Amino acid sequence: MRQDNITFPIGIEANTDVGRAWETFVGIGEVGSTKVREVIGKSWVRSRELGIHPNIERAPTVITSDELEEKIKTEDLALAGLTCLDKLSDILYNTQHVVVLANAHGQILHSVGHQQIQNELEKINFRPGGDWSENIVGPNGVGTPIALGRPEVVMGYEHYCKGWQPWVCYGAPIFNAMGNNILGSIDITGPVERINKETMALTISIAESVQSRISVIQFHRREVLRELGKQIINRWPNDGVFILDENGSFVEYNTKAKYQLHLNSSSFLNKTISELIPSLSNSFFDCIKNKSDADITLHLDQKISNTGEFRINFQPIINRGRLIGAAIIVKNIPFNMDKNCSAFREIGDDLIKQTLEETKQNLSLTARILGIDRSTIYRRRRKHNW
Fold it and tell me: What's the whole-model pTM score?
């Protein structure tokens, strides 16, 4: 994350000029001063259009203490952020600054720093549970970096709301491992007269540390899920099994599951259940949300499957009290051979041929995957000279 594209405020002396511009904007809705940075002027306009009152002096509370406690125990952002921020507590005590961690909605989850400054900031609800999204309280060091997707500083009168104007806020977004999704933000806030560029560099560094810590947590959890998934697969030797993480990404699967739904190994690379098997997506995420088993019957075109129908069981996977994923157990329901005999013969030949090719002509494995006798496969192979 870089800060060289940030247009930094030109010292505390510029704050007075921005203050006059703010009074003018509040009065007539026009940014007339060249002293107002473009990014701030646009944010003022957005705030006015959203109906945010410029005289607000306290942000709303949107997360209760019980909800905060639950998030701190279960959410990766909170787990990683608390580890990183608590290490800074002693360092920040003498700097007259406070560091906060917020989620992707701009809601503060945790704060550390100078106790007197924390007490002052609590008066404007700049504390855990407070909502500091830009569309609620205007430009600030928590919400603006999330809205823009980049680090940003908001100084004094650059804040649209009067209550935040005694402060300078340095903020940086926290991204996921792929860098394509904002998980939250880090903000360092202090008295406006203490503005300096070095604090922005520290803010970015903390955000990157949280990102790295999240990656470590998720890697460890995925490895645990992989091992638990293998144990589950071994318990269901005659059925297809998929193991997915809580976001619906595939982690493990057995051979039978792959052939049951007519998928190849490359299909699973960087794919989610919503992309690959959308017919199972809603039931999977209901299982994740409710942390409970679920059963459905899935009907497939017989061009996809030799059975046409499956019974699907969804089982949440919980480790040390935390849900980390779910298993999908796929059981064949044989269709009526008398009714569908000709269709099975026609479609089954294609499926048998492909499965033989993918198993490198292993009759036993092909028979087990498709749920038919080896003799049937042998006769078909001879008949068609495969």
Answer: 0.76
